[in-house]
Amino acid sequence: MKRKLLFTLAIMGIMSVSAMAAPNVAIDSNVIENSDIIEQDGISYFPVRPVAEAMGLTVEWKAEDKSVVLTNGGPIYITFKNGENAYTFAKTAPMELSGAPIIVNDKTYIPVDVISDFFNYEIMKSDETYNIITKYQEETDTQEPSADEEQSSKGFADLEEKAVATGVVTEVNEEQITFEDDERGTVILTKSDSVKVTDKDGKDADINSVKADMKLNVEYGPAMTMSIPPINNPVSITIE
Length: 240
Known about the structure:
The protein is α+β, with helices and mostly antiparallel strands. The chain is about 20% helix and about 35% strand. The chain has a seven-stranded mixed sheet with strand order 16-19-17-13-14-15-18, with no helix packed on it. Strand 9 and strand 10 form a beta hairpin. The protein is elongated and about 60 Å long. The N terminus is likely disordered.
């Protein structure tokens, strides 16, 4: 009788662990190994390395200032430090998200809204997965979006279809250009040495030659933040 009871309790324990298993991250329904989602203080976190690498990003540890860098070798450059709620995209000022990075079992976790805010990807949640939707899907909801929702929704998927924009510069500082896109509205362009800048004659120009009231043709980089206004690290700028 005792042996039977122990066996029954063991089976119940296995079922309990299985039922409480944490969901994993998936990309377009493809589950990523070792990508368990954890909850802390009401915030959902995912492990940085397996998810970032599955998205084609490089994960780099900077020992000198104990920071983590996510990059794709191009316009995507995200940095953060464990314990500090201050995430940067390219050369933007640090932004607060739902929580600071944490370390659990020697793995660094960051909040799920890094994916939604910086990449503008939709995340479909279930008991088993947090599925990141990277491929364009047609909108099925016929409800009219608000002005802010309409602007913030014009992110990664939209850029795959149309990455070129025209508009006027409204403000410039040492790190950013405030650009009034004729279609999207206000977009913050980050200054970077990787941005190719040319004048109307096709001659190379310095990005610091961009001034307020100038008309620009901009080729956006592939990642647009979901903030209001959105932030982008452009591929090229042509001064008209």
